[in-house]
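Entry: Prephenate dehydrogenase
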Amino acid sequence: MNDVVVGFIGFGLIGGSLAHALREQNPKHKLTAYCYNRNKVNAGLTKALQDGVLNDIVYELEDLGECDLLFLCAPVLSNIAYLAQLKSILKPDCIITDVGSVKGNICKEAVALGLGSQFVGGHPMAGSEKTGYTNSSSRLLENAYYILTPTRETKNSITDTLFQLIKSLGSIPILLNPSEHDDITAAISHVPHIIASCLVNMVRKEDNEDKMKTLAAGGFKDITRIASSSPVMWQNICLTNTDSILRFLDKYIHSLNEVKESLQLNREAAIFDFFQDAGEYRDSIPNTSAGLLNKIYELYLDIIDETGAIATIATLLATNLISIKNIGIIHNREFEEGVLRIVFYSQNSCEAAASLLRKHNYTVYER
């Protein structure tokens, strides 16, 4: 894309990371963010303006009328509500996209409003429990899968333009239809978040003397980490991807009942197969180590996507006698941090590596 006007509604972790990446790749683009309350200081927008990431902050939606590309980065329900307000404001050739993790509802609404030809649903598979512009980075999107879901009316030229733009930012664009996307994310993201929160709440209700909290570590913290994510965001997701979530929740509940029955009837073979099948499938997922309940000594870090970047890190660790168990780029980093994941054989090695890499000015995230 040539020099364009890019607008943002919602400017947190994902919006900020997109803006960082766009600014680095296209310094002449005009980046503008909408602030719905001119009487309340928005620290993130102010900081982005000071950083030179944003060119302007506007307080009226009408001021987004000149946008060539508009990212909706607010919570899912808010993004849907904004479409109706934007219909009479945006240019007919303005590309509209969002970054929410539910696509069916907003794609249907875009078509119903007559915006289907210029709308492409978007979902960058990257993120963190940490929120806000201050935690954003262009590296967040690098080598991450970025799902695009055109509506049935989206012009091919608009889909192609957005596809190439996302690719130029260092992400890996993938085209899916909205319903397929929502089923996939329900199974691998939405239901797991519900399960993690259920586990935490179960322990919370039973932990009268805080003994469980005191002893909780390792496996429990690993499999419930995502329960720390934004409750507003997950409320929105549950209210907009309800059908898919309910379908996979039913399958999960059925699986739990099968395990319960096997335990009640002391079915040794069934219990063994249950754990074996789960372990084999999980170990087949790229960039994984042992099963969820085993202690994993890992760290994540940001690296520049250039030839030799991983080799440089591996050499640095090797020359300091730090052994690596596994290393690889993370493509699906939703609610994860860092582009590169490194697994070690021991806690001491992990801590030594983190210290060494920080001394060499790498940004390191520890688990």
